[in-house]
Specification:
With about 325 residues, the protein is of the alpha/beta class. It has helices spanning about 15-25, 55-65, 80-85, 85-105, 140-160, 185-195, 215-225, 245-255, 270-275, 285-290, 295-320, and strands spanning about 5-10, 30-35, 45-50, 70, 110-115, 160-165, 170, 200, 210, 235-240, 240-245, 260-265. α5 (about 140-160) links the parallel β5 and β6. α4 packs parallel to α5 (about 140-160).
């Protein structure tokens, strides 16, 4: 039995940074290779620069490090994707093809993150079923639909063990988000803790599925460790955490920071959000691999404010501490 050696693409991203740390705690630091197209701000060795569009470099990296599992997180997200659709399509699809070809060649296990962006206007917005029409209106959503089906194709035709979940909006304190439509739900906590006013780019009553980072990481790890025979969905599983509107999130924040000021100025991201579900039905994930979320909106808000406040205090103390020479 091979000792697991893990490669993470897009390791500098919102999810990638936290997943890297989690997997290293589980498997050991030098059994998890972090990669990205840019160097990270912090030291996360072992790290290598890797462009997923460079198939030769990808294959060489896998051979050199004797990789057995890939978590493929490198992608252009929804809002940034709309600013340059062709670039988003190229990175999201050509990168995935290279990963799937590598998985076929080296017999690797693969994690592919999908998204609620796969859904479009022709679905039930409330508790959107697992098997719904997938007619997205963004290039990000289109690439994720295509990616889901290519993952299933490689599983059926080439026996590639590829697994996937449809992430809702992810909320975490570890880093700022990287260009998604649900980014407001992270930035709002930073503004609140810094006692700054916040201008939301979505309407106050826009309900979207959300998930705390801890739940998202745990779902990722759990599906990758589930017995293969239990996984009956080889496109991508719906997973649910909680769902709320910006107004509900503001109300939860004001329980801790009563004077927090918020205004609303919807932009192009409102149209993207309007095409997405307000909540999803994750019965298949609960049944097949026993998925259960743990974080409610109230618990997310308390955790975010506590964590960000602690980080803010530590930064402040570091600035005023005397320098000893």
């Amino acid at each position: 039995m091979r000792k697991e050696k893990i490669l993470i693409t897009g390791a500098n991203g919102q999810i990638g940074a936290v997943l890297t740390e989690t997997l290293r705690q589980m498997h050991g630091q030098f059994h998890v290779l972090a990669t990205d197209i840019r160097k990270p701000k912090a030291d996360i060795e072992p790290f290598e620069l890797l462009d997923v569009l460079d198939k030769e470099q990808l294959f060489q990296t896998i051979q050199t490090h004797k990789i057995t599992t890939i978590y493929h997180l490198a992608a252009i997200l929804s809002a940034k994707g709309e600013l340059n659709p062709q670039r988003a399509w190229t990175i999201n699809m050509s990168g995935l093809f290279n990963i799937l070809e590598a998985a076929k060649h080296f017999q690797l296990k693969v994690f592919f993150p999908s998204s609620i962006a796969v859904f479009g206007a022709h679905v039930s917005k409330d508790q959107t079923p697992q098997f719904s029409p997938l007619i997205p209106t963004t290039v990000y959503g289109i690439s994720k639909v295509a990616g889901e089906h290519w993952c299933q194709y490689y599983h059926l035709k080439h026996q590639v063990d590829v697994r996937s979940v449809r992430y809702p909006g992810i909320i975490g304190y570890q880093s700022m988000p990287g260009g998604g439509t649900t980014d407001y739900a992270v930035e709002i906590y930073h503004k609140a803790v810094n006692k700054e006013p916040f201008q939301c780019f979505l309407q106050a009553d826009t309900r979207l599925p959300m998930m705390y980072m801890d739940d998202a990481i745990r779902a990722t790890v759990e599906i990758m460790h589930a017995p293969a025979k239990q996984l009956l969905v080889r496109t991508s599983y719906n997973i649910s955490g909680t769902d709320f509107t910006p107004a509900e999130q503001v109300a939860s924040i004001r329980q801790f920071i009563p004077n927090f000021e918020v205004t609303y100025k919807p932009d192009f991201r409102q149209h993207i959000a309007d095409s997405w579900p307000s909540s999803t039905d994750d019965t298949n994930a609960r049944t097949d691999w026993n998925w259960r979320p743990e974080y409610s909106l109230q618990r997310i808000t308390q955790e975010m404010i506590e964590r960000l406040s602690t980080n803010r205090t530590q930064r402040h103390l570091s600035k005023i501490s005397p320098v000893h020479q």
